[in-house]
Amino acid sequence: MKLITKDTDYAIRALSYLSLYPERIVTVAQLSRELDIPQPFLRRILQRLSAAGVLRSQKGKQGGFRLARLPDTIQLQEVIRIFQGPLTLMECLKNPKTCVNSSTCPLHRKMKEIQQDLRKKLDGITVASLSGKGAA
């Protein structure tokens, strides 16, 4: 099980970098060099973040990307959701109908608690806190 996929990891790295220069438009080529992420892969990730309203894109010769919001308003869990969907530790937590024992299963109850705790922790993590520009 992967909690964080490569897409999410790269998105967080790009957002953290962009948070260091919130007013500056940064090109995909520059981000690719700075973060050592293949350009076509990174471009696709940035386009998804832009479509989700996390980034703003500017086309043309002076084009690139910049944050659409303040870094302390972009939560790690939001980025996970964009690339991976809702965080779910077990299928039965997402859809209890997949397991006939979910109402009596001790593992289900414990995993539900862990999932709730994890979501609360992730809600407290912002791009600003990851880049050292906000509360940890």
* Uncertain ranges: none
Number of helices: 7
> What is the name of the CATH class?
Mainly Alpha
Rg calc: 17 Å
Helical fraction equals 40-55%
Determine the CATH superfamily.
Winged helix-like DNA-binding domain superfamily/Winged helix DNA-binding domain
Q: State the strand order across the main sheet.
A: 1-2
Largest sheet: 2 strands, antiparallel
Measured distance between first and last alpha carbons: 26 Å
**Number of E strands:** 2
**Topology order in helix (H) and strand (E) letters:** HHHEEHHHH
Number of domains: 1
CATH topology label: Arc Repressor Mutant, subunit A
Mean pLDDT: 87
Tell me the CATH architecture: Orthogonal Bundle
Beta strand %: 5-15%
Query: Which shape, going by the Cα principal axes?
Result: elongated
List the helices and strands and how they pair.
Blueprint: H1 6-19, H2 28-35, H3 39-51, E1 55-58, E2 64-67, H4 76-84, H5 91-94, H6 106-123, H7 127-130
Helix pairs in contact: 1-3, 1-4, 2-3
